[in-house]
Amino acid sequence: xxxxxxxxxxxxxxxxxxxxxxxxxxxxxxxxxxxxxxxxxxxxxxxxxxxxxxxxxxxxxxxxxxxxxxxxxxxxxxxxxxxxxxxxxxxxxxxxxxxxxxxxxxxxxxxxxxxxxxxxxxxxxxxxxxxxxxxxxxxxxxxxxxxxxxxxxxxxxxxxxxxxxxxxxxxxxxxxxxxxxxxxxxxxxxxxxxxxxxxxxxx
Length: 203
What we know:
Layout lengths: L13 E5 L8 H16 L3 E4 L5 H12 L4 E6 H5 L9 E5 L2 H9 L4 E4 L4 H15 L7 E4 L6 H12 L12 E3 L5 H6 L15
Parallel strand pairs: 1-2, 1-5, 2-3, 3-4, 5-6, 6-7
């Protein structure tokens, strides 16, 4: 299969995935991560992620690599020193710190996908949402709702709108999908966004 958009909406060639390194969570999360990696690779999409070898991170990378996909890991030096890096990636980019990691991961991608995870995953996701609100990052954001993990997160964002901390139009900045297989199509079909969003960044 190809990454040509054809009749399927926007072309998708490179996707950033935020996910967890924990191997203690329910195995369903790692199964979903592997499926996402397989799906992206089967469609010729390069996966950019945090470079880890364990948990959902490792499953994502292994799934994509098993289907012949290209996987780019971005990881701080100290994590390499801890031997947390995946050793079989297409490319491993070492950076100075977590801030540099986040900037490089989202740079030049056609979409962001968030899988369930902990505080690090939420930090990455909410930074992407904040950048999109400011019209700095304008491509799709997709949340894969395995085990209904993101239900409470989206309720919190709904509350932000209800309490007038965010505009109702901001609810179009992300898409929630139930299955990892649906993430790529959600990116292709996402509501267009551009820097003009700055006009309603502050309400």
